[in-house]
Write a structure and sequence with these properties.
Elements (H helix, E strand, L loop, with lengths): L1 E9 L4 H7 L5 H9 L3 E7 L4 E8 L2 H9 L2 H10 L3 E2 L6 H4 L1 E3 L7
Antiparallel strand pairs: 1-3, 1-4, 1-5, 2-3
């Protein structure tokens, strides 16, 4: 199982809306995430907009590719793109910065 941690940056003036949207994530998007291998998925947000995401998956590349094929994800990514800094012309799931795992306590 791969552990994936990534960073994005939410525009400071969009933070409140971003949080509100994530209180009611579409059920069909949640189902697509589960079906494509996104487990224990969490998003954390600092008050300056730094977003840290974490999930576990059998394959990071397969999880991304699986979601890319889902129409519900395309709609979600189009809706969410204006919320992020530094991803010009990309979807958020293409512009995320994956962090290297350097320690794990098991």
């Amino acid at each position: 199982m791969e552990r994936v941690c990534f960073l994005l940056k939410v525009k400071k003036d969009r933070i409140a809306d971003y949080k509100k949207i994530h209180q009611n994530v579409w059920p069909d998007l949640l189902q697509a995430l589960r079906e494509t291998g996104w487990h224990n998925y969490s998003i954390f947000l600092r008050d300056d907009g730094l977003l840290v995401g974490y999930f576990e998956t059998p394959s990071f590349q397969k999880a991304l590719a699986g979601m890319k094929k889902r129409e519900v994800n395309t709609r979600w990514q189009v809706m969410m793109a204006p919320y992020f800094e530094g991803i010009e012309g990309q979807r958020a799931d293409e512009g995320l910065l994956r962090l290297e795992e350097v320690f794990r306590l098991d």
